[in-house]
Amino acid sequence: MNKILNTFVLGSTLVLAPFSASFAACGLGNEIWGDNGSFGKKALASTTNVLTYKGISTTFEIFGCGPGDNIFKTVSNEKVRYYASQNLDHLAAQFARGQGEHLDAIAYLIQIREEDLESFNTLAQANFELLFSHDKITADEMLFNLKQLMIKDKTLSSYVEV
After folding, report:
1. CA distances from 131 to 32, 61, 85, 100, 107 (A)
2. Is the Cβ–Cβ distance between 32 and 45 less than 8 Å?
3. Hey, how many other C-beta atoms are within 10 angstroms of the C-beta on 89?
4. Other residues' Cβ atoms within 10 Å of the Cβ of residue 21
5. Rounded to two decimals, what is the model's pTM?
């Protein structure tokens, strides 16, 4: 029985390690096995992370995982880009007014907290000319401008990955 278990662990390590190299950066596996740079320890850490649902570590930012390791934050950035590209005209009108359901939706996708929503809407309205600087502006350009403004804002800078 012990031989079967060892074979399973070794086989899992060899099969999963190449596909889960990114999982070794943080998580329970890294806490247990450490990371001294050797392939064996990285493979064990990666395999342990896969088998112990690294998503829990990244979601709750435990076992050495930080905000940058959370794949859901990356996914939400893609959702923001997609939403902005599909609703750019509506966003332009509502950024100009500083209110509206599309503006609320983009704030929701950026994960702006309720207490910071007024600051976000004010920033959008006050900087409309910069956010929509020309008629042919793309969603990516507008979002880049928005990010730059948010970085400079004391209240909203915490929502932006630099």
Report:
1. 47, 33, 14, 16, 15
2. yes
3. 9
4. 12
5. 0.55
Instruction: Clarify whether residues 78 and 150 are in a common domain.
Output: yes
103 near 91, Cβ under 8 Å? yes
What domain count does the chain have? Answer: 2
* Same domain assignment for residues 76 and 152: yes
Indicate whether 56 belongs to any domain: yes
**Residue 136 domain boundaries:** 71-156
Q: For 48-65, what is each residue's pLDDT tens digit?
A: 666 665 555 655 566 666
* Residues 125, 80 share a domain: yes
**Do residues 124 and 156 make contact, with C-beta atoms less than 8 angstroms apart?**
no
Q: What is the pLDDT of residues 70-103, one digit of tens each?
A: 544 554 678 888 999 999 999 999 999 999 999 9
